[in-house]
Recover the amino acids of this structure.
């Protein structure tokens, strides 16, 4: 067992209503790793990383995410089935039940912060029932120095109790699990689920409200990296589209892989202190940086290992949403601090299950706003509870589940920043080619990397008729040639070998775009509306 005499730091949790808890405060990653093994909650893999099982939930549960409706949020939140209102009094009663449940237990507490830009720091205290959940917080949030901890004053609190089960009838939840944000009390309350992604996404959702409303800063569900000349590239995309993979580039410094802010000073900063990467089919050959990051200090979630601790990354018998979290310093080539300037290129990543979008295309400003508001991709099996096969879907701003404001608010901020910074925007299909999901094949990673490198190197320049072809259905400009990519791959129609079937599927997707956009068109100007597909199927 772990020698607890080494855990000298402790604090009282009485102010949170948690009584008589044994508090392990600010433990190191190594201590939390050892605690997890000692409690039988994890196993060490052959790489040194710890492997845990998150239990019933192996992904987020979007229908169980709530925001307390109060004076701060009532008139600003875009209420609906994404931002589900929760009663303030019911929140207090549920909070009291959770803190009562955590009383008399051994708990793990750490102080950390979000937002790498000094001007935007958000101090956070995390209270966890399990040591590996606290280790996840160590990995994913920014780590204060000893000097910063001396005068640390937490602004937000995360209370995380995976073992607590709500009573929906009494507590006002949908089922026994919940993730609730309260902007007045500044609390993220999470219970009934061990899936660690709820911890980071809770704070991400809070910042998606705080930054635009109070700080004139655009929050983005994106990854970002910076070149040797200081040029920042931003990669928007939902889970499984390649945000983490494509931003982790040996020739560019990683700013972060998932959550960023774009300030009025034109800087881009990481919210986080770590990465949370999907590891389905991970290989050393395809993704060497991420593969190498899976070592002592990393947490593998829901993977299958043999009796020697070797991980089978192709085994999805628990979930397709297998994950690893690691502190960002596990990647060699990172930006310190995690802040970039002067964004030059934005990539919208989509995993097109229809297989009809070009692998890369250049967007006009109007198309950029339209595709940002639309946020098209395919939900990949396992990322959310209940999704067992890919489903074509639209997620506004490439992150609707985490966006408390109306999508046009974020789109207006992005459009303004893109114009001011003179940014080029590219739509990249990392999904299917040669046919839809089940018929075609997934776009080769080496081709996608070659296309992105061509953009960053200046090989794919401004639009000209000689260099680009306008897609007859979607109106986007697809390059005719690209270094390192076979010409036929650049034309999705050419990969199908059946023009009639291709156009039938392309029109099906274009109609889905238009149908989805109806809910935004009253708030979008004529220019943005013209950014969508212009041809209709008969």
């Amino acid at each position: 067992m772990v020698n607890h005499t080494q855990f000298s730091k402790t604090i009282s949790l009485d102010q949170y209503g948690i009584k008589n808890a044994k508090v392990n405060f600010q433990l190191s990653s190594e201590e939390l790793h050892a605690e997890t093994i000692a409690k039988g909650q994890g196993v060490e893999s052959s790489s040194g990383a710890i492997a845990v099982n998150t239990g019933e939930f192996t992904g987020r549960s979007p229908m169980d995410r709530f925001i307390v409706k109060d004076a701060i949020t009532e008139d600003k939140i875009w209420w609906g089935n994404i931002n589900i209102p929760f009663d303030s009094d019911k929140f207090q009663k549920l909070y009291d039940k959770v803190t009562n449940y955590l009383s008399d237990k051994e708990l793990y507490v750490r102080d950390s912060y979000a937002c790498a830009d000094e001007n935007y720091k958000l101090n956070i205290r995390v209270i966890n029932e399990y040591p590996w959940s606290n280790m996840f917080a160590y990995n994913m949030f920014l780590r204060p120095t000893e000097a910063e901890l001396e005068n640390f004053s937490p602004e937000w609190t995360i209370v995380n109790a995976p073992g607590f089960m709500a009573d929906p009838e009494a507590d006002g939840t949908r089922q026994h699990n919940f993730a609730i944000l309260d902007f007045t009390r500044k609390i993220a309350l999470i219970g009934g689920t061990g899936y660690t992604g709820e911890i980071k996404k809770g704070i991400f959702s809070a910042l998606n409200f705080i930054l635009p409303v109070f700080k004139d800063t655009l929050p983005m569900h994106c990854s970002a990296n910076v070149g040797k000349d200081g040029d920042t590239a931003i990669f928007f995309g939902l889970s499984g589209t390649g945000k983490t993979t494509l931003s982790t580039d040996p020739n560019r410094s990683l700013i972060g892989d998932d959550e960023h802010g774009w300030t009025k000073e034109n800087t881009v900063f990481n919210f986080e202190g770590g990465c949370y990467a999907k590891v389905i089919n991970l290989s050393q050959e395809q993704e060497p940086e991420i593969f190498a990051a899976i070592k002592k200090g990393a947490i593998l979630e829901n993977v299958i290992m043999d009796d020697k601790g070797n991980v089978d990354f192709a085994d999805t018998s628990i979930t397709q949403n297998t994950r690893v979290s690691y502190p960002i310093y596990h990647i060699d080539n990172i930006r310190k601090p995690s802040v970039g300037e002067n964004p030059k290129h934005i990539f919208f990543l989509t995993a097109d299950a229809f297989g009809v979008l070009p692998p890369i295309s250049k967007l006009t400003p109007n198309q950029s706003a339209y595709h940002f508001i639309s946020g098209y991709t395919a939900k990949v099996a396992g990322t959310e509870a209940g999704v067992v096969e890919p489903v074509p879907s639209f997620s506004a701003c490439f992150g609707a589940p985490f966006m408390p404001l109306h999508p046009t608010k974020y789109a207006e901020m992005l459009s303004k920043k893109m114009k001011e910074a003179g940014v080029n925007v590219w739509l990249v299909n990392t999904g299917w080619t040669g046919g839809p999901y089940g018929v075609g094949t997934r776009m080769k990673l080496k081709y996608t990397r070659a296309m992105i490198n061509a953009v960053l190197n200046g090989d794919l320049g401004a639009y000209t008729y000689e260099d680009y072809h306008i897609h007859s259905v979607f109106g986007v400009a697809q390059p005719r040639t690209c270094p390192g990519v076979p010409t036929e791959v650049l034309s999705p129609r050419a990969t199908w070998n059946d023009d009639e079937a291709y156009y039938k599927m392309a029109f099906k997707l274009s109609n889905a775009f238009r149908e989805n956009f109806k809910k935004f068109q009253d708030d979008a100007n004529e220019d943005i509306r013209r950014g969508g597909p212009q041809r209709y199927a008969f």
